[in-house]
Design a protein that fits this description.
This protein is of the alpha+beta class and 91 residues long. The chain is 52% helix and 13% strand. The chain has three helices and four strands, in the order ααββββα. It has a two-stranded antiparallel sheet with strand order 1-2. A two-stranded antiparallel ribbon has the order 3-4. A hairpin with a 6-residue loop joins strand 1 and strand 2. The radius of gyration is 28 Å and the shape is rod-shaped.
Length: 91
């Protein structure tokens, strides 16, 4: 009776180990597939190690990196919609 219990425990342990290994392999394969579908985009400022200049939207006042801003008419904008609306009047 003792040997039977021992073998049942050993078999259950091997099955649990196989299940854990299969899950980890599937998770790493999914991460690898996601990385291949969406390769990381390197920003020029991050590759040089220098901080990027921040600019302010003339409409809403939000600060954003210069590379993401829209430049039009001597002003900076956070979106095309704010460029269309124009500068907000102070007052």
């Amino acid at each position: 009776m003792g040997k039977a219990i021992f073998w049942v425990v050993v078999i259950l342990g091997v099955l649990m180990l196989a299940r854990v290994l299969a899950r980890s392999k599937a998770a790493s394969a999914a991460k690898s597939k996601a990385r291949q579908a969406n390769p990381p985009q390197a920003h020029p400022a991050s590759s040089q190690g220098d901080p990027e200049a921040m600019v302010r939207c003339a409409h809403c006042g939000v600060h954003l990196p210069r590379s993401e801003a829209r430049m039009l008419g001597g002003n900076t904008w956070c979106s095309n919609e704010h460029a269309r609306l124009g500068a907000r009047k102070q007052g």
